[in-house]
Design goal:
8-stranded mixed beta sheet, alpha/beta, single chain, 5-stranded parallel beta sheet
Amino acid sequence: MQCVACQSKIDPGDNWCSKCGEPVRRSEPDSERRFVTILRADVIDSTGLIAELDPEEAVSRLEPALVAMRGAVRQFGGIVSKELGDGVAAVFGAPIADDNHAPLACHAAIELVRRVAGLGDAGLQVRVGVHSGHVVAYMVASEFSKVYEMGGPAQHLAARLEAAAEANQIYVSEACQALAEGHVRFEFLGGKLLRGFSQPVPVYRIVGASDLSSWRVRRARSVSRFVDRATERALLARAAEGAGATRQTVLLLGDAGIGKSRLAHEFAQAQKANGWRLIDAECSPNLQGAPFSTLKRFLLTALDTIAKGTESPTDPRRNLPEIQQCALDAVLDVPISNQRWSELEPHARGRAISDASCAVVAAMARRQRTLLLLEDLHWIDRASDGVVAAIASLPVPGLLVLLTTRPNGMPVWIARCRAEVVAMRPLDDDSGLEMLSDMLGSSATNADLKSRIISHTANVPLFIEEVCRGLKDSGTLRGEWGDLALVRPIDELGIPSSIQGVIAARLDRVPKQERSVLQVAAALGARASEATLRNISLLPEDALRGCLVSLDRAELLVRIDSELEDSLEFRHEMVRQVTYESMVEKVRDDIHARILATLESDESRADEPDTLCYHAVRAKDWYKAFNHGRSAGRKWLGRSAFADAANYFEIAMVALDKTPATRMREIDAIDLRMEARATFIASGQVAEWLDLGKEAERRAGAIDDIGRKVAAMTVRAGAQNFYGAPVEAVAIGEEVVALAESSGHPGWRNLAQYGLGQAYFLAGRYRGAKEMLATAGAHLAGPAASAPIGTTPQSLLVLCCMMGSITHTVLGEFDAAEQLQREAAAIADETGRPYDRVAAAYSGGWLMLGRGDAAAAATVLEDGFVLAQKHGIRLFVPVLACHLGMAYLEQGLFDRARRMLTEAREEARAVGYTSAVLRSSIYLALATNQLGDVRAAQNMLREARNTARQQGFSGLEAEALFGEAVVTPHASEDRTMILAALRAAIAIASESGASPLREKAEAMLNSMLAGGDQLA
């Protein structure tokens, strides 16, 4: 950016040219998203004030208040975006970002009320509303003027706060209060019902400005201790030693949040303890436009320090020439009656002020070693800037001048005073982890979170602290500082509002062309290649290279790994997020469309459909999003990453429904749901699996497609086996098998037969299940084996063998079960698919339990359980856990059995797997009984038996009845109950063919009868 008057280079954050002093004129900004603070103010009952006045008189009546409002807004760096006749709408933090936008807006509001009250017109009373939030900022040009306008809900909340405020009061939102707390004093007014808002809105009233310095505000919020900075502390210590011979000046340079103030104050306090006099002051963004405001703060601090010192207090002004005393009085706002001072030219007055200030500092340094700490030079007022330059160049021993500034505030005179510039860097990983351990605690359970925070913040201390604070305030972390526990998963760490402005202000220093490259990189993700940026940015080669060099130097987009010279990544994720979120939707859509076109033309990206899907969705190219989402779903399904696959299939479904409605679209929508079912099945999303079938069936009916209706009904029937009662599953299963056979779709027929066999099994119709599963298995093992979309004949055959082996085991036909189990295991070994291996492990464990080898069963089931969890095959997790618990129970490991069966039941409930809930409850009751809680075991079994009877799970009803007989004490009064349960179990098992269960029940019954009980 250049000054329009003298063409000197100026920083985007400067308000005036450092060479000629002309105000900076900025070009019109593009539309963009901004996090800002909005101020709304108006004159109360303005209509009543001017209703009967002539137009010119009306304008004259209100104009003084409007002039006062404009002046207050501009004094604190705001922009009047709109005048409303009797008030103004103003914005702080745009078009150039400022991390102090909320405190500045609050101070402007206080000044606005003060100025209007100072007009002496009792009829002019104002009310003010202030709110911080996201807006879309854009320039609106009319025939005669241009207005910087804000759009979005934030404007409306500011207006509602203004309307609710009382006369000469300032109401602010909770968001604004959180950002300005410490800089301004507030009173909480509770929740207020504002027009247009359905719920009460927390409202605060400003009661005054705080006298706390920015450092004190930050220090009061800090929850971490000072760590590391050994290199910087050594440099400062060396400068302190050198100050004994001559004045030393050190400038700590770094972006906001890097730790400049923390280091400076830690060092200053240590020097004070070593006998140094400390004079600390700071430049204020609130007073940047007030001449000598920084110098006044410094002089007041210096005089106060001298007055409180252990030496006899001597006012250093006494030995100064009369004119210099007047100069200091002028800075300190002391009335001056000296005629000579009144007659001095402005330049001579400025020289006298500089000389007097230097004399005061020199006198203090001669009496006692003095450390002058002046913070935030980027906010220094122009008049003080020259005086500080003179002080920093004083040839006086015993003086150490320590300054802090951001990169955009580097003084032009710093080289003249031979200062040592210390560029502050982020912490190293070890120091970042030390800081996190201090805040979160040393527990290993937070290790992953700490690593994510380190990566997210790039070890910038303020960012680390604010992210942790945000997690604690939201309840994601619970406990006390130093001992916090993560209580729920975190998808994204996000960007706390307290540091959005910090990052946005840094990005605003980036020229427009470099900003456009940064935006493309942000849309690409955390890492990008130079070649991709070249194709998408549309910049000439030299221009792009220049932008990348500048961005690397600014540590925004940096080159990584010497072996990958073409790769670039964001210094930390927060910069990428703020860059991305600053773009308006239209700009984002266009960039993602360009990225998508570039990536699609690159053949090496053919195996990255997930990346293409991401950009297609962001570009709102819905048909491409459907195609790439489906491809990504297939990719991850092929890799047995079922949850990821389900996510991409869902994206594809949503995207397809956003394309124009045609018959072809409906066909694609049905086929997509049929293909996607496997991912929802494996990941245990049973309700969603059922919905896929229902929705596909509805769409197939609407276009009168019988073949696809059969497919959809088959999917719905399969889900019904897990989600509902067996009677419903059997009814729809029989219907769909008949339809599939008659409609000539062998693949769907085979799947429907497998599903019906499973339904028969759940209903306790084991002989029917055996026959139906054998029929399906024969079709799948034959030369014309066929399977529907989304699976293969081999994988479907594994399931048939699994279910067949389990059925034969329940029937007591162990040789047949063994044959099917071997076949399932062989296919699983051949395919290597985790899903097939888990299925084979499940039936293998069931068979070994049936044969009484609980230890071998536990080994097989443990392997399957681990594999299912590793690959997210959640549908099998509850049944594997249940049978593993049963194996532990058979081995007498009752406590382990109870834990595993409890987990199985909870997981089954979460998945919606009805029969697994019942079976795990039955065997959990048996484990509970073995551990001595007979009453709880009886209650569980009674509830399971009643539920199984009501819902038609006759096989599980028989198991529950037998369990009741086992856990009921054999006292004389309970024998009738036990015998009844056993006889009922025998009757059901006999009817279903469950020989092992029948034989166990008969053996127990005969044992009791042989003991003398002759009840009929």
